[in-house]
Amino acid sequence: MYRKEEQPLPPPEKFELPFEGKLSPNNRW
After folding, report:
1. Phi/psi of residue 12, each to 5°?
2. What are the backbone angles phi and psi of residue 26, rounded to the nearest 5°?
3. Tens-digit pLDDT profile for residues 1-29
4. Where do the record's region annotations for Disordered lie (predicted)?
């Protein structure tokens, strides 16, 4: 699991967009 420094966990909709480029497909929940 990963935390956002500024905000708490955003909704899945916002989660996929920024994290999809940074995290590997295997790291997605």
Report:
1. -55, -30
2. -75, -20
3. 555 566 666 665 555 555 555 555 665 55
4. 1-29
Q: What is the pLDDT of residue 22?
A: 58
Length of the chain: 29
H helix and E strand count, the chain: 1, 0
3-state helix, strand, coil in the chain (%, to 5): 50, 0, 50
3-26 burial string, b = 16+ CB within 10 Å, else e? Answer: eeeeeeeeeeeebeeeeeeeeeee
Token pair belonging to 24: 């590997």
